[in-house]
Every structure is written in structure tokens, then in C-alpha cells.
Amino acid sequence: MVAAPLKLLLGLENEGFSFVDVGHSYQPKARKNSKTLYCDSLYRFCFWDFWTPLLNQYCVQFKRMKIAVEGCMHGDLDKVYDTIKYIENTRNIKIDLLLCCGDFQAVRNEKDMDSLNVPPKYREMKSFWKYYSGQEVAPVPTIFIGGNHEASNYLWELYYGGWAAPNIYFLGFAGVVKFGNIRIGGLSGIYNARNYCLGHHERPPYNDNTIRSVYHVREYDVHKLMHLEDPIDIFLSHDWPLGITDFGNWQQLVRYKKHFKDEIQQGTLGSKPAAQLLEKLKPSYWFSAHLHCKFTALVEHEEGGRVTKFLALDKCLPGRKFLQIVDIESDPGPYEVQYDEEWLAITRKLNCVFPLTLRRGDFGRTQLDMQDCRQWVKSRMEDRGAKPCEFSQTAPPHKPSDSVSNTTFSGFPRNPQTVSFLELLDLPYVLDNALDSRDTPASLPQKDDYSEDIPIEDEDDLEDGEPNNENRSS
């Protein structure tokens, strides 16, 4: 039995989130004349100097993993890692894992920016290239999903997931991995009703249409995730599940995001596929970003009395609520990223209907006899091991000393990690399959027909919070 005050501190009651909210600035500050690190909204006050010894003793006894959750990265890895180091040093704790909920912007060099759907005036190298090149190493294991501002050419190389840089793992367009005994799933991209049922027809180099559609969530990836049966501890999505605001204080949300009110009342704020996955998977935690604000909700599922704790976070900027530390009960470390047996079985079974053209996938013709497939995967993993293939570069990193771009390469490389993954599952490599004339995207809506969500210069940066003209659900 845990003492009641300690249970309150650790968030074992009510929302169940952890004891520290540090997203207000790059360096969290205690309130004046107090030894309290302020936790706003639904979170608790934490008397660190008094509670830290008891907290550390509790964590040793019950093996609680400390996970940092971050909203939209936008390439600012240096700033996020500096914030984590500050927390660790000042609070005498060790963060075990960083999760990023999209807009990671894994830009390796100038050429990658051609695949980044960002207005030219906002295109910057930021800091990911340092970690890709080896100049810097991520101080904490990092797992991320994609959003709607990504170097999509690079993420397509790692469609099934893989190391984007040493110690920085991309979960794939959809994926599940294990970190210790914690099972983490995720869905990259944002929902767009027009493109949802299409196949993954986009190939680099992208045009004005495909640079936008490449990151739109596809039915095929959701279909794979809907076949998960084993419990999920954490799920990541970039946009919010449709209707999630019904389970939190949406009235408070619209006080500072006034333009959300109509969409909330009309039931259009969020992603339909994400809502379907939330209902099916019922994860213990669901983390999102995209709308550049913090929001919490508690979803009580009808079946089995399970509860999902939802948290959305802002982007990495001073004064924004972009980072949260969460404690989750786990086995003792050390921890490492490992493949998930059930997910590998689903991937192997459904790869035969992987749609790579404009045509919708024919999912009905695949019978999922998962028991035999899982046994096959288990045998392969016993022979090979569950660790993903090691990181390897497939493009030259940015060199600040070069006066001109050093990215004169062309073509679409096969990432050795993806090749190794497919060899593990005895699957063919199809990511570079060319489209025939019947499958060209010429018939797709033109650029002006698209309505995208939350550009880099989002509505929070506009005077008086005027809403922009872009719809979050299309």
C-alpha cells in the first residue's frame, strides 16, 4: 500500500500523470518564495526538496520508468534535450525515454528540405543534422512519429520504422515497439478524408500535391493497427482523436483557442481513424500534439473498466507547455528498443495487400490466422534477436562550412535498416516500386483544393489569436 500523500504526488489517483510539468519555458522555474515546481491544470504541486528521497525510494521499489513526452519538435532537438538535462540535473532524476508526437523534422541536409512541406521562408536546418552526422548524440533514447511537417523522403525510407539517427527511433508510418516491458504504438501523419482510402502512391521527388498528401494517414496503416489484440501501454498520434474534447475541460480550451469552439460543437475537431483506434486499443496513455496547445482528458471505456489518460502538448517554444514527465510502472532496466512480436506478425501477414498506387487496398482477401504467423515470427526472433538493425547513413549530412549545397546525389536509396527488416520477415522490398500511367496522381485535387492544418506560423502567433484559414480535419 502506498501512502496517500505519496499516491497523490505520483499521480496514482485521478489523471494518473506524473509529478512535473515543465513546458512553460526551456528552464522550469519555481514559484517565488516557494520550493514548489508548479504543475498547472489537472496536475499537482510537488514539494521536491522534501519528497525527492521518498520518491526515489518508491521508484526503486516499484520500478517506475520516467518518460518525457514532447509535443511538436519542429527540429529543435538541442532545446528539448537541454530542457531534459536541466530537469535531470536540478531534480536529481533520470529520464529513461523521450517520446515526440510528430513534426519532428528529421532534416539531414539542404536537399531534404525539398521534401518538407513548409513555406520557404520558414525552412531551416535546425539541429537534427547534428545527431544524424554523429556530431551530437541523443542523451536519452528517443522515439518519434511523423506529423505534417517532415522530411518525408527520409521517413519513407524508414516506412516500417528504424533509427533516424543514433538513439533516435522512428516508429514508422504505423508501428509498435517495446521499450523494456512498455509497449508503445503510434500512427504518423494527419487525417485527410480525401486521401484516406488511397494507397501510398507518393514517391520522391514530390510535387506540389504529393508533398502534402504523403503524410496523410492511410486506411491500410490503420487497418494494421486495428488488428492488435495484446494490450498497448502508450499510443502516439499527431492529430487528436475525434471527440477527445468531450472527455476533458473543453470550455477552458476554447477560452484561449476560441476558433476551436465551432469544430468542437460540430464534432469535427480531430481524426476519425485515431478515434477508432482509441476505442479499439484502449491504451493506458495516449499522447498527441499538432494543435499547439496543452489539453488533458480521461477516457473511461465501457468494456473492462479500462481508462485512457490523454495528453496533448504544444510545440517547443519559450512560454509554451511542450514537455511533460510521466511515470509508468515497469520492469527494472536497462531498457532498449525492441521489435514487437505481434506487430511483426501483422506486418508480415498484411504486406501482400500493401497498396502502393492510387487504388484502395483489397484487405478482405487476406485471412489473418495470427497464431501460425506469430509462431513463425517468434522463431525468427529467437534466431536473430529482437533488436532493430543498427543505424546507417543513406545521405550526406549538412556541413555548415560548405558555401554551397553538398547534396548533389540523386535517386532513391534503399535504407539498410529497411532491407534488414524485410529480410527478417522474408518480405520483398517494394518502397521504390514505380507507378504506371494508370496510377499517376494527375487526377488528384490541385494544391489550392487542399486544406491543411496548423502551419509553422500557427494562429497563436497571430495578433489577437485570429484563426487561420486552414481546417484541422481535412
UniProtKB/TrEMBL annotation:
It holds the Pfam family Metallophos. Keywords: Hydrolase, Iron, Manganese, Metal-binding, mRNA processing, Nucleus, Zinc. Its cofactor is Zn(2+); Fe(2+); Mn(2+). It comes from Gossypium mustelinum. Residues 386-410, 435-474 are annotated as: Disordered. Residues 299-431 form the Lariat debranching enzyme C-terminal domain. It comes from the Eukaryota. GO terms for cellular component: nucleus. Its main location: nucleus. One of its GO terms (molecular function) is metal ion binding. The keyword Nucleus applies. The keyword Kinase does not apply. Residues 450-467 have a biased composition (Acidic residues). It is found in: Nucleus. Belongs to the lariat debranching enzyme family. GO terms for biological process: mRNA splicing, via spliceosome. InterPro entries: Calcineurin-like_PHP, DBR1_C, Dbr1_N, Metallo-depent_PP-like. This is Lariat debranching enzyme C-terminal domain-containing protein.
